[in-house]
Amino acid sequence: MAQEKIINVARGLEKAELVIKNANVINVLSEEIHLADIAIQDGIIVGVGDNYHGEKEIDVNGAYVSPSFIDGHVHLESAMVLPKEFAKTVLPAGTTTAIIDPHEISNVFGLHGISFMHEATKGLPLDVYTMLPSCVPATPFETSGFDLNSYDLSLLIDKPWVLGIAEMMNFPGVLNLDKNVMAKLELAKQKDKRIDGHAPFLSNKDLCAYIASGVKSDHECTTPQEAIEKLRLGMYLMIREGTAAKDLEALIPVLKECNTRKCLFVTDDRHPSDLKEHINGMVRRSVEAGINPIKAIQCASLNTAEYFGLKNIGAIAPAYRADLLILPDLKTFKPDIVIKNGKIIVENGELVDELIQNETPSMRGSVNVKWIEQDDFRIEAKGNKVKTIEIIPHQLITKSIVSEVKIEDGNAISNIDTDTLKICVIERHRATGNIGKGFVKGFNLKSGAIASTVAHDSHNMIVIGTNDYDMYVAAVELVKSQGGKVVVNNGQVISKLALPIAGLMSDKDFNYVLEKCSELNSATHTLGCTLEDAFMTMAFVSLPVIPELKITDKGIFDTNKLAFIDIFEETKVSC
């Protein structure tokens, strides 16, 4: 009967449940805008044409109607809120589908973390699909909470909510035919599912080999040259605009000059302050930069759906799901109305109904460290010249430089004058007692310390400070709260956000987390930090899959040499 109803409504013989009248349809299939009515029945679009009638009708008087937006790659945990709060924030911006990579929480809790995220998204008017994390841990050069192999992933690969294997960060493992990596790639290929990539600066024959292994996308391009090479070789280009890594502006020339049908928009990692304008913000900025609005919307909808094989979303045509946005213009891209599965869920920027969801599963504590003493932060000096991690604002890549530290009582300490600050990573999953120690430049703290359990990818505890005592106080505070972010000065906690869920997420509402994040940033600025978001930048300093110099719980790691290094130059100690 349902099929008969759909056919009769499509033919105009019966009324639809809902008809959007006099719409300027943004047709991403034909790449045109045309006036039509849109008939919706049982949550799907059944007709696009003239003179449809419905039990309910919305006359939009020539407003634009677009397919709703899809985030093609997001670590939802980076928003530091539970999925329900994430959905409440991005739905009014027009995002109704997200493809998540629960890489962060699975580094802490393994398969249980993946299942937790899936359970926490059930019942939401936000469709959430999962790409199974490919690199837990990302490398053997750090300690994570779990190690997921191909057998582990095989337990979930057939689930309908699983679309494939997430970003294969271990591209050296692909090129060197690592057996564990090969098994994960083969698992996805056997199931005919997608394999996402992650290969910054990979080029020429090595890039060809990486793609030939089955990897079909990349979200690490930072230059047009890199992006064009990957497009030429058949990759889908995921254009990323996160909080720490912002690549949209740099890649606008690609959208202007190349075939955009293999380009899609993703957010990857976003801080709460960057959530309220979501994929729609990328569309807006693209159009402002001169990109055709239809092509920009394709990158936010159809292209993403086609890449992931989601055949019933991403366009306005019969048999597509009625996930639609009513836009007042093609400038702001802020929807007046958001329709999900044929139901109005957002009107005038507000959710129509409170989100109803199953109870969130419980999780155990995740900050398990060996007893910490202030003396654990000490670095015995072998000289006053050290190889230092230099951050690059708004980029995940870092530089390896030589900087000068101070020496006190035979120990190397932070040098505020040269902005060379001590950085430590404390293993927090298995209480091994591992503490990686080094120095970092670019945070400009003049006093105090900052610390967090959000530290990609293994999410050990990371601490940066001007002195050992404040670093010690900050670390102990995070143990007490079972994770979070903290700012300490003169032995006093001046700002803190507890993140008791895996040390990554809060159990509070979005506005609370947003306010606390603002307080944390303000607190870092009072200590002299010049970065817009020190915590987001700090979170990637421990990521050993991205050049050039990083730190893990095992020490300072040179990604070019794929080896740990002694930070001291060959010089004599000068007191």
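the 2nd protein, sequnce then structure:
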Amino acid sequence: MSDMYSITGMSCAACSARVERVVKKLPGVSSCAVSLLTNSMSVDGTASPSDIIAAVEKAGYGASLNTPEQTSSPSHAQEEEALADRETPALRKRLIASLVFLAALMYFSMGHMLNLPLPSFFANNHVAQGLAQLLLAAIIMVINQKFFVSGFSTLIHLAPNMDTLVAMGASASFAWSVYVLFMMTTGKFAPHDFYFESAGMILTLITVGKMLEAKSKGRTTDALKSLMKLAPKTATVIRNNKEVTVPIEQVQRGNVFVVRPGENIPVDGVIIEGTSAVNEAALTGESIPVDKAPGDSVSAATVNQSGFIKCEAVRVGNDTTLSQIIKMVSDAAATKAPVAKIADKVCGVFVPAVICIAVLVVAGWLVAGKSFGDALSYGIAVLVISCPCALGLATPVAVMVGNGMGAKNGILFKTSAALEETGKINIAALDKTGTITSGEPKVTDIMTAGDFLEDDLMKYAYSLEAKSEHPLARAVVDFAKEKGIKPQEVHDFHAMPGNGLAATLGDGDMLIGGSVKFIGENYAVGERFTNEAAKLAENGKTPLMFVKGDELLGIIAVADVMKSDSKEAVKELQELGIRVVMLTGDNERTAKAIGGEVGVDDVIAGVLPDGKESVIRKLQEKGRVAMVGDGINDAPALTRADIGIAIGAGTDIAVDAADVVLMKNSLRDVAAAVRLSRATLRNIRQNLFWAFVYNVIGIPLAAGLWGLKLDPMFGAAAMSLSSFCVVTNALRLNLYDIFGGKK
């Protein structure tokens, strides 16, 4: 059982690590993942919600259980509202107010250095200047009281966070300055010993960083918000033979709705009347409209570009393709990528370690003979330059942007782990039917005998095959219909299992169609046609022979044709250093013909659906394997593989066995998914590297170990920029071309 919770009070990765740690300790909790980016927590297990909420509150944070209505059937408007950026406007107000008072504070503290005139009362009255600075700094501290409430609250709960570092730094600066102010009355200190401006500047600069970070974090969910905005708000349904416009929530399964040119399709359905070209770019990323006719399916949020269509609702509410995509992207953002575990472990001890380092730095400089004011300055600089946020945000922001990029292009990663692991594969096992090939047999070759014309052969073949439901028969019938050929009436139709079909024409002649072996054993075929049939079979095609009376009409070859982009897709995978293996139940001769045509590295033929799992197991002995299939009969293999990729899922995207779902029926999206995964992982590593390097360099620098004294104000500025830079770097993923310039 999995429950989702909303968490309040978190300000950095140390917070999320603390919440995760206390919840995992509860009896009955099997797994817990806390997202700092979305302020949410997913908990699996049997622990009661009341115990979980109590544990979070005891740790110093707030928690509330999302009700079933919120988690399973929220409207897109509610979901969009939940993702709205409320943090940036609040921070902007705080920042503007802080800047106004900081300007006055800097005027009183540093104006004399710039020869700025002071009111006569303050000109040589250093105590008055100090009092003015005290009041202004106190106002800035009140404006930014959230840092102190959060920081000292978590400190009391023995779970200090980033706010604790800021609050301690600003408080130490303020307290020391107040002490100096009192001591000035005895003549022991001079005005330059004040740190009021540092207290105000630290809080203001951190607020700047927080606002930039919040604004950038908001952009990481842009893809998700864009998907939600696509959801139609109303639908035009037929009720009592009249068209009625109703809210989308009132559309029920089985309702008939109409869509005019230029309108969005409101829910998933099946066309029952009319034809159209539908732009499905919102779901698949494919900009070319798809022709639709009665019997074809349509999906919510796609656009009817031409023609009036009448449809029956099949999936409504949260069952629509769009809703499931939104849920999948949201769920993926709530999970943790394996690479994030390193940062989580560090963040769990980071803030307490920094506080200890700051104390040791102050003590060390006092022992070295520095004044308490100078020693304190070093300690404050250590507190405010340290940034656990950069470490904590390194992974989730990149994951969110990567998932959004995938969703925009019809590539859905079910978890953050899937997004990370997809790029690590070095073997791709491709199912043949429906993956490399279209999955629907087509007529590929026609050879006529004697004086018969091609249209004659197709007319008789159509007349016979129209009575059959066999897939090969459908291929012949569809081809004849495309050519505009009319069938003849036949009677006494009967099937000969394993051999072919037979019927009687109006003139009394027998019409027979079947395998080369059956026709060759019963009729004079001739060496030429026998050889041609053998060549067709060697090329992976199925030759069908047709006879009228005792005369051979000719051969029609049928094959499951290769998709137009399969060859290019295999080449792209190979260029990525991935060995491509084709799995098929075909005989070895046919399999090798198709494998050679598409250019795969290896062909494994004669594999039944239930045998694919064992093949994947053997391939895993040679490397990390991705199984690419249709997500239905390949379920065991998809589950066994390191990464299961369901291709061409279309409207049926809920393929439980797959880790990655590709909305388009294109094999090239497999290579695109690998590229996106590798780019995201590369971005995460960059973020983690710079976050670690920043702290490794920044803390010793602030401590004065390299002979430099870093003003606490510059430390605060550096801290603010570090998180902003990490988030901005993650947003660069939006510029990455996952199709390698070959879209």
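Residues 14 and 347 are 5 Å apart (CA to CA). The radius of gyration is 35 Å.
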